[in-house]
Amino acid sequence: MTLPVKSLVLMAMLSLLGASSVNAKSVGNKEQPRPDPGAEVIYLVASTIGLSLDELNRSFNVIVGFQSGKFTLPELDSLADDELLLMIDRSAEPFASLDNQQLMLVAQRYLIETELLAARADVDVDKFRQFYRTFDRTITLALRVNKYVSAKQRSSLSPDASLTYMDVDNFDGPIIDCDRSCRAVQEQVWENMFGQLTIMGDMQSWEKHHGSQPLGTVARIIDHESGKFIEVRNQSSSLAWVSIIGGSGSDCGSAACI
Questions:
Q1: Where is the signal peptide (predicted)?
Q2: pLDDT tens for residues 141-163?
């Protein structure tokens, strides 16, 4: 039986951190474990944010558990749109830069979601927020590093760890004409939610005409003049579509991308 892409990706995530946790405990053994460069990428990002190893493990497991559907957030799910609108401070960012009520609701749900997940992980919300916003791109990079190293060594570190979200030459997901999203990623500082909301708005507009996409779908937003693209994945989150990687130079910065 072939597992869906989302399940395979989550298995790869668990493989990355799980293997390294085992390695860390076995340093005193005579046989030295094989290094896992993908996990080192995750550790580097976490340490830059200020997460300890225990905080990283708790954050990682909570995010993977939430995205895989092992638990939900009933406190958030029970909130009606009218209640959420009353919570919004329209003078604060990112709301002050938004003129779309639907995106304001998305942003407010995501803020509450982040706070609930941080509390579940027992991690400071500011540190958790940074890790959560970079999570998908960090994991994608980690998986690709492992795949690259495995190819160089001509041996696989792990069948799951070598998985990549997409095939550059044989992409079979939805193709979206480049609009604001490419520029948002090109200019985006990772902790800037407005860039992610720009992507979300473009994908909402696309889905209105083409239909909703299942969880785990990877879409490619491409600038046909330059051939440059970014990719976004549909995930279990208030901010459903998140950028996971850039292609052909990691930006879409041609004149056609406005």
A1: 1-24
A2: 888 777 777 776 655 444 443 34
